[in-house]
């Protein structure tokens, strides 16, 4: 068995497995050729941040994936992070642990490049949970009437953006990214992809030569029988000032006579407060009287690949002195994480040996990964039995120590 970066001549085989694992109905030969060209174009263009990898057994490609190298804002420190995407196993070779071998390779690959955090979108959450991945921030999906959007904003600064303004969009995003736990640095390729697709509309709130907010959206049909009844689905919303946010909101409110519902997929669990009526139009009541405003889902999952290195990389955020935590960590997948660690917040070091400590915590890699990212809080973890603590009188201290705003993820892979 061999796992390696694919060769140029193997891209067709790579795409064939992707289509076999994630079939698309009635795909023509021409569409297949375009899919291959799209994958190959991305592979060449994004080679600095993405690597196409496959597992071979006796010369047969049985599975494949794409490994991404990001710079991520974790607890307001920029660190390296690894994304695992497009994990696919040919249907002929299921139940041969191909996926497990690919994920093990990904962890080794990341460690070798000084990347101590991995994240992915699971095809099944339980499968990756068993591999040590903890849940990230859930995503809520709202379907809101445009008339319910807040008024009072000024949309005179709203313009449709052009491709030659990508750098201004990147500047706007990077400012937003630095203030949000979990976001990654973005490159021109993603923005070019949106401008290259006529289905997407891109508006921006401009101010003094800068873009203070931008929104990417598309129209989607709201009826099989009425072609003029449409919804809008917001793909991306980035804003850096309240004036910019309110300007974008006013733009969408002004479409009330044309648009049925505006669909927003968001990890901001406070966003529903912006609307005078966040109900989704279903009139569904949750007992006793709670109006349905949408649906929710879990997606992105995080895993600390090297606990000692990751904690030392991010410990500078923890503003605490005279504190040492003993942590007994269970990791069935990566041996170096399975054991006892002493975290000294004075020296900012993590060691496998020690004597004195203030608190002793026992948990697993899934739970601590979610807590360190900010998707799960210490108090809830203790109350649910996900973490054992020797002295619960210190729970307030630990809750305040580990708390951070929930991580956002705007990477699609």
Model description:
The model has no long low-confidence stretch (mean pLDDT 95). The longest helix has 17 residues, at 29-45. The protein has helices spanning 11-21, 29-45, 98-112, 125-129, 166-178, 188-195, 242-253, 307-314, 365-373, 378-383, 395-402, and strands spanning 2-5, 50-57, 60-74, 77-89, 117-120, 134-135, 139-144, 158-160, 201-207, 210-221, 230-239, 259-266, 285-286, 290-291, 294-297, 301-304, 324-330, 339-344, 349-351, 359-364, 388-389. With 413 residues, it is α+β, with helices and mostly antiparallel strands. Strand 13 and strand 14 form a beta hairpin. The chain has 3 domains: 2-115, Gcn5-related N-acetyltransferase (GNAT) (Aminopeptidase), CATH 3.40.630; 140-297, Gcn5-related N-acetyltransferase (GNAT) (Aminopeptidase); 305-402, Nonspecific Lipid-transfer Protein, Chain A. Strands 1-2-3-4-5-16-6 form a 7-stranded mixed β-sheet, with helices on both faces. It has 11 helices and 21 strands. The chain is globular, with a radius of gyration of 23 Å.
Beta-strand proportion:
25-35%
* Measured distance between first and last alpha carbons: 26 Å
Q: What is the CATH level 1 assignment of the largest domain?
A: Alpha Beta
Fill in the CATH topology of the largest domain.
Aminopeptidase
Binned, the helix content reads 25-40%
For the record, the count of structural domains works out to 3
Task: Give the uncertain stretches in residue-range form.
Answer: none
**What does the largest sheet look like?**
7 strands, mixed
- Say which CATH homologous superfamily of the largest domain is assigned: Gcn5-related N-acetyltransferase (GNAT)
CATH architecture of the largest domain: 3-Layer(aba) Sandwich
Mean pLDDT: 95
Please state how the strands of the largest beta sheet are arranged side by side.
1-2-3-4-5-16-6
Radius of gyration over alpha carbons? 23 Å
Structural class: alpha+beta
Number of strands: 21
Give the helix tally: 11
What form results from the Cα inertia axes? globular
């Amino acid at each position: 068995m061999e796992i390696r970066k694919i060769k140029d001549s193997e891209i067709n085989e790579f795409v064939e497995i992707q289509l076999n694992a994630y079939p698309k109905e009635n795909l023509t030969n021409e569409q297949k050729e375009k899919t291959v060209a799209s994958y190959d174009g991305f592979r060449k263009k994004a080679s600095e941040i993405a690597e196409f990898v496959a597992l071979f057994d006796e010369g047969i490609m049985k599975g494949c994936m794409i490994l991404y190298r990001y710079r991520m804002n974790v607890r307001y420190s920029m660190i390296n992070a690894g994304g695992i995407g497009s994990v696919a196993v040919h249907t002929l070779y299921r139940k041969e642990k191909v996926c497990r071998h690919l994920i093990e390779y990904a962890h080794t690959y990341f460690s070798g490049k000084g990347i101590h955090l991995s994240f992915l979108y699971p095809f099944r959450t339980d499968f990756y949970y068993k591999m040590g991945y903890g849940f990230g921030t859930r995503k809520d999906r709202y379907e809101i009437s445009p008339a319910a959007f807040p008024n009072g904003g000024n949309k005179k600064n709203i313009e449709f953006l052009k491709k030659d303004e990508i750098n201004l969009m990147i500047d706007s995003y990077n400012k937003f990214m630095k203030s949000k736990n979990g976001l990654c640095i973005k490159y021109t390729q993603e923005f070019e992809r949106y401008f290259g697709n006529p289905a997407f509309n891109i508006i921006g709130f401009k101010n003094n030569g800068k873009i203070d907010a931008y929104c990417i959206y598309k129209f989607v049909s709201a009826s099989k029988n009425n072609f003029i009844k449409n919804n809008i689905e917001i793909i991306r919303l980035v804003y850096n000032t309240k004036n910019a946010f309110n300007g974008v909101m006013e733009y969408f409110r002004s479409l009330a006579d044309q648009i049925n519902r505006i669909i927003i997929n968001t990890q901001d669990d406070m966003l529903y407060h912006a609307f005078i009526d966040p109900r989704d139009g279903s009139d569904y009541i949750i007992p006793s009287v709670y109006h349905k405003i949408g649906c929710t889902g879990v997606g992105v999952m995080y895993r600390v690949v090297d606990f000692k290195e990751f904690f030392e990389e991010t410990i500078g955020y923890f503003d605490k002195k005279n504190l040492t935590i003993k942590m007994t960590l269970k990791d069935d997948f990566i041996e170096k994480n399975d054991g006892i660690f002493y975290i000294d917040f004075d020296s900012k070091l993590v060691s496998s040996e020690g004597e004195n400590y203030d608190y002793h915590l026992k948990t697993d890699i899934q739970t601590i990964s979610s807590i360190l990212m900010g998707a799960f809080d210490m108090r809830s973890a203790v109350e649910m039995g996900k973490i054992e603590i020797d002295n619960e009188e210190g729970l307030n201290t630990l809750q305040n120590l580990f708390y951070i705003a929930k991580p956002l993820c705007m990477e699609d892979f």
